[in-house]
Amino acid sequence: MDFAAAKTVLDGIVQNVEKVIQGKEATIRRALTCWLAGGHVLFEDVPGTGKTMLARALSKSVGAKTRRVQFTPDLLPTDIIGSSIFSREKGTFVFHPGPLFTSVLLADELNRATPRTQSALLQAMAEGQCTAENQTFNLPQNFFVIATQNPVEQHGTFPLPEAQLDRFMMRIALGYPDPHHEKQVIRSQLLQHPIESLGATASEQQFEAVRELTRRVEVSDSALNYATTLVSATRDDFNIALGCSPRATIALIRSAQAMAVMSGETFVKPDSIKRVAPAVMEHRLVLTTKARLERLQSAQILGDILKKIPVPVR
């Protein structure tokens, strides 16, 4: 598959998802970029903005096997990973895989589960593997976690720890639709929800071929230097207690490679790194106590860093 064909496949997926999520093309492309780059995405927004529908539409557009887990305070790690059940026929315990063993895992309201259950996803998200019953299982090649969380100010939520947030390549907010698109959404659901008739525009094999192509996108020294400079700046800022990890640098480069493929280009533009930086870096920053008392926000501090560091021409 060449870059022109890859762009056609990805444009088809975006247009298909827009039948369900209207007026949010940029957000759809950002989420698809994350999947294409081999990462996982965290949607953080108030209830009812379409986070779950976007996740379902993306997976249906690729024909990927999808499992959904509704995270609640009483959910246990074995409810996600699976457990061994005694088989009379075999006379031994047999492991029964849980919903984690799928291509796309929709972790709905992740921050309503206890930290113990949240941590069950750490190995799967970082390594694409899962350990259960002293055995290690490989997850599907296209394994992708789409997690949603409500703002921590809501009742009954457990804030995600820094180690878990660092596993998410991007954190994205959908936001409310404008009045024009909100009316279109309502009209489209009067008889039947459009997600029910949504079909696949690409196969998992095609999508995997596009992902393979993404890894071959050229990354120049100037683009790599720009990414490392941005990450280093977060570690030196006096308002930030904990800056971005090397995983953030990798996420910046891979996201920019995916953006290049979505544009039909064969190399990474430093400007693409700047465009994905907020979604990739903001949720990884831990502010100092002084900064929090002064009501500073990660977005504001990162915005200042992006303004100070010039973008290379190429």
Summarize the structure.
This protein is α/β, with parallel strands linked by helices and 314 residues long. The chain has 14 helices and 11 strands. It has 2 domains: 24-188, P-loop containing nucleotide triphosphate hydrolases (Rossmann fold, 3-Layer(aba) Sandwich); 217-314, Magnesium chelatase subunit I, C-Terminal domain (Helicase, Ruva Protein, domain 3, Orthogonal Bundle), CATH 1.10.8.
Query: What is the domain total for the residues?
Result: 2
Number of helices: 14
CATH class of the largest domain: Alpha Beta
Q: Which strand order do you get reading across the main beta sheet?
A: 2-5-8-1-9
Low-confidence stretches: none
The number of E-state strands comes to 11
Shape estimate: globular
Largest sheet report: 5 strands, parallel
Structural class: alpha/beta
The appropriate CATH architecture of the largest domain is 3-Layer(aba) Sandwich
According to CATH, the homologous superfamily of the largest domain is P-loop containing nucleotide triphosphate hydrolases
Helix content: 40-55%
The value of Rg in angstroms is: 20 Å
Strand content: 15-25%
N-to-C order of helices and strands: HHEHEHEEEHHEEEHEHHHEHHEHH
In whole angstroms, how far apart are the ends? 26 Å
The protein's oligomeric status is single chain
Task: Let me know the average pLDDT.
Answer: 87
CATH fold assignment of the largest domain: Rossmann fold
